[in-house]
Amino acid sequence: MEETVYNRHALPLLLLALLTLWLRIPTIGAHLPFFDREDEAHHFNRTVRMVQSGDFNPHYFHKPSLHFYLRMPVVAASFLWSVREGHLKKVREVQTKDRYGIGGYAFTASHSGIVKWNRAFSVLLLLGTVGLVYFLGLAIGLPPFFAFGSAALFSLSPNAFLYSTQIGVDIVVTFFAVATVLVGALSLRTLTPSEEEPTTDEQRRTGRLLAGCALLAGLTVSTKYNALPIALVPLVAALLSQRDLLRNLTRILLLIPLGFFLGSPYILAEIPLFLDHLAYEIWHYGVAGHVGHQAEPGLEQAIFYLRWLFGEGLGVGGAVLALAGVFLLGITPEEHPSAGRRRVLLLLFPVLFVLLMISQRANFTRNMLVVVPFFALSAGVALSALWNVKPFRFQGLLTLVLFIGALSSVAIPTLSLRAALNDKTDSRLMIRKHLAGNPSHAVCDGRLWLTDQMTRELGCREVDLRKSTPFSLALSGAEEVVAPSLLDPLFSDSPFFEKKDEIAGEASRQRIILNPALTVWRYTSLSAPGSDAQWIKKIASDEIPLTELSPEEAPLCEEEGAEGHCWITSRFHRIRNLRSTPVSLTFQSPWKTQEITVFVSGGSSTPPQAIPFSTQSNSAFQYEIGPKDEIFIALAFTRSPSQAQLSSDPRYLGVRFTENS
Question: Which residue in 135, 164, 171, 187 sits closest to 380, CA to CA?
């Protein structure tokens, strides 16, 4: 790489960029508006909140802060773009909280465009990382073809595909880790053979590169704590350089923490919180583990990660070459001293990182993205070594076959993942087709994680169905209920609702809700055959709101006396006449198609009966309640004037009634 003319590398870099972008751009919007990974939702919402509040202190140190700072400008730019597109006016309109979400976070994006911008930023970082891998391959002495093959192997890796379009720390730490090793390798490339004295310019250049390597190492750790082994890269590079050692080591020991605190400055302002959060991460990874993502430290964990390498990491072909390359890097002498030293740097971080992960109890394959570029380069080393074997008649053909096999072992599963992502849909996007639509009053389970905009468009209000009963939903005026099919037993035996439709999806319980199987339930009118006031009274008379007409001369509804009338805000209502004389009431509804059914419970002289009445807007219905009698009012629906955009009144209103003078 000493005499590199960068124009020579324009074509391979262009091909790598086209491959990387072709694979990922169509998947940037995958699953939206629903987040399919918990960490992505957390990181996105926290970054947006920092922009909304203008507070650069994240008050959160389970992860270092550099990741948030890098994404804040992306959030700001995407917000302004969204304003230009007419999607929102104020940054606080971006929804980051959901009372039904895990930890109160929103797991559905209220503005998908802002998420796409942030995912595109992840792809941009991946694009930069692929280029860095190519140049790192050249720096360790690989011919351009094999450096290109290593970079392509990394780009095609299923692990890189899965996590490079996510809003998370893994692609960020991978970018900085590869950049750190590359700059460290470049600091060694200027060295002359040991018997020659380096020039002053060479010494200065080496010092500057080592300083840059140290600063990048600090920034890498400021992205993810478990990247700490990267701090040894500039130290070992300085030791290998054997030039101006004391000054370089002193500079490195100062610049590594400087880089860390540049990326996470508020750690210094909140040391107790930082220590608590860091202690939790140490305990989480090393002691407690994570249900569904854990193995015993040592051999069991090593086997887990070996399987990962042969599968999601680099596939069988790539993994075999990578392990062969690691072996060759350890035993193959190099003609030029600096080339051998650069290869030491290539192995240093990934080996230490893998050993660190093997010593933990928790295992998340997303953590391993940071070592995929280095294993891809070691695969390139193995291919290059095979190409140079002499005498060996068919080494060229064998090398080409192994190269194609390695790329195929990652390309095939990655293309399958890409197709699956593009084909995925979600049952929640089909709710609209199964509801009557406005102005019907639908209830949707809050744990479907719909955004406010979605509930408005559906004419749907959110309720925690696990804490509700069919009767309480009927009482609240629900005409249709959208519920996970897991709750079918709750509604199946209820006389208030009947199954209207089903939406296919995932029927099992999920922590992160994705494509849930849904059932749409329709309210069964109380006036159906076999229903009467005695029946409703027997079921839940205590839950039905009651208005008592007291003997004293007082307003019917003291809390709403200023309106001059009483509102019935539930589907069922009781009115009891405590007076010894009849009371005449007038009922009116603001809704054009309201239906009122009066069930007389039977008092001193009146037998049970049902009196139906259909209204037109503002038309009146009069009814006289006998002395000491009680009536049940059943309405077809209650609706919100604010939801119907008639006024700002948020209540769900059915009819109003007044006493006739």
Answer: 135
